[in-house]
What we know:
Layout: H1 2-5, H2 10-19, H3 21-27, H4 29-46, H5 49-57, H6 59-74, H7 81-90, H8 92-105, H9 112-136, H10 161-178, H11 182-198, H12 202-218, H13 224-243, H14 251-263, H15 268-272, H16 276-290, H17 301-304, H18 329-363, H19 366-377, H20 391-405
Amino acid sequence: MYIFKKYFTNHNYFIFFLSIYPLALSLGTFVSEVLNIFIIFLFLLNVKKNEIIKILKNRISIFCLVIWLYLIVNLLFSNYFYQSVPRSIFFFRFILLFISIVYLLNKIRDKLFYVIFSWFFFFSLIYIDLIIQYIFGKNLFGQISVWPGRLSGIMGEELKISHLILGFIPLIIGYFFQKKKFIFSLSVIFLTAFILTITNERANTIKFLIFIFLFFLIIPNYNWKAKITFCFFILLTFFSITLFSKAEYSLKQRYITEPLSAWSNKSILDGLKQTTYGAHYFTAIKIFKNYPVFGSGIKTFRVECSKVIYDDKSLIANWQRCSTHPHQIYFEILSELGIIGFLLLFGIFFIIILKKIKDFLKKKNYQSLSATLFVLTCFLPLIPSGSFFTSFVATIFWINFSFMVSNFDE
């Protein structure tokens, strides 16, 4: 009995829960939220009173609490109070999740390999599944993507698989770079660039390419010639795949033809007006102009956008201007939380990002750097993104933010 009992420890439970995060996220919001609750519960079981005081005194914890408090205050100015209440109040769970993961990570540092290996095994299967869906039109489970030319893999009708890959692969890359498994890490980078390209998900593919370029720009392991050569081959692979794609809705059409068609002989603003994303963006800007200080309230874009005052015939996709969110984090924050929320949220995160990049130059923590660069890619301007506050996107963000912070001793 003792032999088995020693394996059923809180730390081993955490290793297991952390290991199955990608699977839980792929199964849906309910499963991932239950997993979040389990991890928070483990934290509450393990943390000591003196440790809680230390955590609450940590500047990053204070910054996160300030963001949550602003969301509560912002409720008073929401155009749709009852629409905003759940998301504002329950945002606190992500701060608790962040604190829980950082705390528990420092208890299992010597066993992190089991988590990384589990993630690597899971995404190896995902990659095989996506390649099969790309070649045959169906994945291993017979699922067909409902979006022509785009791959959804095991996530069926939801085009989230590329963001799931983007959210965890950088942590795997950072871990193996830390262990000096450079050839293996480069192979993972190359394969991931290929997989993301064939999913036909432009935004996440571009974000991963930017992640790679920033990663090689900062790391000291290789000379500049080697870094430039590898990045060149990544780009060459990307353009080769897109240019010679023969699918019905080809990669070339989505990555090259459509953008060039929208932007040819037009200014940036005119080009945006030709797109559905542009309709979301310009509507969000109008909402921000109407409510510049506090915005219309969190989770209110979906309601506010339908008002007649936002009707704009200059937008080709004016009839599609409404959605659950503006599909770009800058416009989401500005329209829903106003200039105060924008300056507060972006100011805090960019201060922490800059600090962590400086820390890397001293401590050479590659996994923290990878997580930092992922967080940075979440704040890229103009590139479409999921809603910052939805469960799927937020869970992935705060997992990476936890690896980025690493511990509460700094």
